[in-house]
Amino acid sequence: MDRKFLFFIGLLFIADGVIAREAVGQRQPGSQESPWAWACRTGRGCVKVAKDSPVEQGDDMSNPTLSGCKLTCNTESVLWPKPRDAISLSKTLVAFHPTDIRISRISAPNSEVKSLTNEAFLIFRNVIRKGIPEAFRGRKQTARDQQRPQIEVQVSIVSGETRLEMTTEESYNLHVKTIFATAATPAAPRSTTSVSITAMSFFGARHAIETLSQIMAWDDTLGSMLMLTDANISDSPAFVHRGLLIDTSRNYVSVPVIKKIIDAMSYDKLNVFHWHLTDTHSFPFVSTREPRLALYGAYSPAKVYRPEDIKELVHYATVRGVKIVPEFDAPAHVGSGWEWGERAGMGQLALCVNKEPWPTYCVEPPCGILNPVNDNIYSVLSNIYQDMNDLFKSDIFHMGGDEVNFSCWNETTEITNWLKARGRKDNSKEDFLYLWTHFQNRSLEEVDKAYGNKQPIVLWTSGLTEEGHADKYLDKERYIIQIWTTGTDQSIAQLYRQGFKLIMSNYDAWYVGKYFDCGYGQWVGEGPNNWCSPYIGWQKVYENSPRKLIVNFNETFNQKQILGGEAAIWSEQVDGTTIEGKLWPRSSALAERLWTDPDTNWRVAEHRMNHHRERLVQRGIQADALQPEWCHHNDGYCFL
Amino acid sequence: MDRKFLFFIGLLFIADGVIAREAVGQRQPGSQESPWAWACRTGRGCVKVAKDSPVEQGDDMSNPTLSGCKLTCNTESVLWPKPRDAISLSKTLVAFHPTDIRISRISAPNSEVKSLTNEAFLIFRNVIRKGIPEAFRGRKQTARDQQRPQIEVQVSIVSGETRLEMTTEESYNLHVKTIFATAATPAAPRSTTSVSITAMSFFGARHAIETLSQIMAWDDTLGSMLMLTDANISDSPAFVHRGLLIDTSRNYVSVPVIKKIIDAMSYDKLNVFHWHLTDTHSFPFVSTREPRLALYGAYSPAKVYRPEDIKELVHYATVRGVKIVPEFDAPAHVGSGWEWGERAGMGQLALCVNKEPWPTYCVEPPCGILNPVNDNIYSVLSNIYQDMNDLFKSDIFHMGGDEVNFSCWNETTEITNWLKARGRKDNSKEDFLYLWTHFQNRSLEEVDKAYGNKQPIVLWTSGLTEEGHADKYLDKERYIIQIWTTGTDQSIAQLYRQGFKLIMSNYDAWYVGKYFDCGYGQWVGEGPNNWCSPYIGWQKVYENSPRKLIVNFNETFNQKQILGGEAAIWSEQVDGTTIEGKLWPRSSALAERLWTDPDTNWRVAEHRMNHHRERLVQRGIQADALQPEWCHHNDGYCFL
């Protein structure tokens, strides 16, 4: 039997609804039928084969279109990230029209959760539509409607939570079952697919809806949507904190681009948008209580985030299963926006702003550091914190604490006098750590007042977290430490042993566009390699398991202490124009690592990764290409 | 005198037209006046300064807005590439409304050239509009029209050429003169700016129009367009061949994205779009005479270039000063699209297609090579060449000749028998070079028949161009060699001494996204560094002077022999979604090197480069960010 015959058998089987057959007739006029089909080949995956060639042993031609094969060939279909707990999927498909998916029942403890679920379902339908070529979208419904396959979705949610917190349960169950009508009941619909989603929280249910969107796909050959007829998935994440850091100070990123980043995060089940809102370079955050910060600090009146922008983004993220964690980095990494202190009679709020030679005072131009002995800064900080709490309402807050250089403080008489008055006359490292701790404690007080509780605080690894400092200066019950050293740095083991909770962003794997930026040229000077070169491929991102990092220190892995991880994209050499391609699909590799944390390596994931990248592009994300499309058409043939 | 006072003086001076003052009132409602202005600072450039601070020595506040300062602070304004011959620019500005630029006279020898010029002028007006924020575009003309500054453009072209060829003269002269109306003539327009463009060819005139577009800019603060009042520029390119190679086989690049690439090339005065149309991976070129090639070889029926697409692109490129040079790479780098030979009773057209293990037969998966002893291939090639000539009508043709691996030929009995029949029984390197030369000569015959003349042929450096081979197998009067080895490779010196014309694409500087792609991870395997790592920053692209490469071989530089250069972006790891950010602004660095070939280094160009990148983004090109925007606001402060 040659492949051509099987191909038609396959088409008829798939095209159980009338839509598919209709659609086949709608291919581009004049285009000849393709000579190619796809075989699910043992040991490889979906492979392009000529329809007129004999079927090879090990080739399954049941679903001979590209989409049909991809959906059914592998155990995990084309799901990304791969479900962690249990997965059982059919090898059979049903064709359907996207307007025939309906949510038939939501069971939830309150109307807010119902409303979020309805919104998530609308988003899902729009996402599905994005995968359909323009020419096929929005076709009119016809009289045949009742004969088309129906997909009915039921959602059942236990908890009334409407904000994603570290304690939120994100697990879900997804059951899909299709009943085909028999010839004996011709008046009934051709088939009915029941989808049942159960989850503890809205956030789990939303993940289930995302998973559902990935067991369906547009089929170019058939001109129809396809979906697995049956599926049973139980799923939950390995880590609670699965994030991306976006820096909007070095370069501004517009609100629409931030929305696209959140869209893509939701496709990957990433759940934390860590917003490095401000830095020395610019201050785009419009503080209602301190409007002079953005007036002086924004790159332009248009390059700001107004309170209404942020409120909108927080809701936008929530319905997509993402929480926004703001960072206000201090006492270093400030400058632009703080210039008005003396004009307002408040003294110098920031010191050494734009001071040269910059390498003496900071790690990159321009320099700047807060003046911790000027008490006026604490009232300004209090205002910032209150505004941030009002807008973000996140359950953790990031206080930065990155890269404090003591040279500027050392040269400032106001500072050295303050230290002298406290019996510290040496201007030693210990003296400045004392000053820094004074700043950290004073500003923490303001955070606590602003938030009205003692919520967890994140700090970067820094001088304060070094050996002998962390346990002396920082309370492990208050502080979570975000690691940005290499994954083998001993300070990780130390902090872990001391009982600090950790978020991993070790730069050797998860700084996907770091300053002097990984794998790009330098931006000050002309050197070809920056400090965190080379470019980090998705494979390396994928292999970076926080669990394995801990085990490699000969420590027992304690899930409660390792909250998860974040990929960081600092924006010295990126802005909204190209950020998507630098984030994706590498952030997807991070996502599967943090959601599934599989024991298998990137090779096993490569087919799905390639396919997921194509799906991201279909959904409008400017994800970078990893391989020639030929590799996507010939699974398992692009290996060394 | 403080800066604030100067700022208002400056505004009034600039805002000679009524538009500017109107527009100032139209800034976003509620936004407070910015506390910042810009000083043109000696030894630095445009630097952000507080309006209420005293003027520092060396600071010129004549044009205190960001755009005004940038346009006037440097000798070359913000022109990119920098004019090569003579440049004299005013430090004064006139505000105008884009609808008030008119072309008043075109003097040209034929109507085709006039029509091209009119089209180029319309493109120019659209480009200008792209730089204007949405809210300010398309404002209604008011009764005050006659009072607004008028800009009248006259164009004078000598030659009737309508196709860009290697012999086309691209030089131009641009004169801009503004006459301000005096108080004594209140009824007259406030000012009139006369623009006079003279050029040998349309292509020179188009470059002049591009230059004109770069001495004007939108001013955010004033809410108006600004332009230098006076300018005298004589300009001509250092090299005739200034190109980009785009590969549309490994991954498809859509026609709209190709148009955007051509747009950006036109902003940079790059003039050759080298189209690597086909390769082993896919065959997207729809050959009218051989439609089976794309039927079998395209990734999908939508991922093709139809004759009408190509015709449209060729015209699109021509009016933008760009010629499209097609490459049909052979005998290697073929595969997809050639599978139908045996089905059609024509024997095997391509050998070892998709054969494994691929490292034995080719440099990357999938493998494939033409069967040069099957005479049927020459009729197919003839058809391809005829189609290409019909569509592209370029004055040079690229026959590829890259990376021929002899293993496949060596294992093919049909080939070894053919060699035996010609007394070559050793299957030695020389035997296969003989076969390759047979192929090259036979296919060249078909090219010559198709084109009806003996036009220059480009070949890549390869086994055929190695020491002792080039002069033996290739005619230096017919072949131009495109160099892709490193810039210090001795074969460059050799070919140069032998008298071959050269196009430089040495991969150590101008392979901006090469396969196993420079500075990215590997796509087969997981290694962090590929063969042409690291990522090549714009500085290195900028410093790669073909002239200096030749001089470094202790050779006298002969302008006629070095046609120019190309940056190559192979598409194993890129497609239309991210190609713009990988091409730009690095291709702009290439452009200034090839247009101006300055003796100065990248440091001198950095301010203009930063500004040009912003301009590319304003014009809709997704150019990558090079630095924090802070550096663009503070020229000369982001150096090590």
UniProtKB/TrEMBL annotation, chains A, B:
Occurrences of domain Glycoside hydrolase family 20 catalytic (ranges): 239-597
Signal sequence extent: 1-20
CDD domains: GH20_HexA_HexB-like
GO-annotated molecular function: beta-N-acetylglucosaminidase activity
Location of the active site: 403 (proton donor)
A GO CC term assigned to this protein in UniProt: plasma membrane
InterPro entries: Beta_hexosaminidase_sua/sub, GH, Glyco_hydro_20_cat, Hex-like_dom2, HEX_eukaryotic_N
EC class of the enzyme, as a word: hydrolase
Pfam family, any one: Glycohydro_20b2
Assigned EC number: 3.2.1.52
One of the GO biological process terms: glycosaminoglycan metabolic process
Domain Beta-hexosaminidase eukaryotic type N-terminal as annotated: residue spans: 79-215
Keywords: Glycoprotein, Glycosidase, Hydrolase, Signal
Catalytic activity: Hydrolysis of terminal non-reducing N-acetyl-D-hexosamine residues in N-acetyl-beta-D-hexosaminides
Top-level taxon of the source organism: Eukaryota
Family per record: Belongs to the glycosyl hydrolase 20 family.
UniProt name for this protein: Beta-hexosaminidase
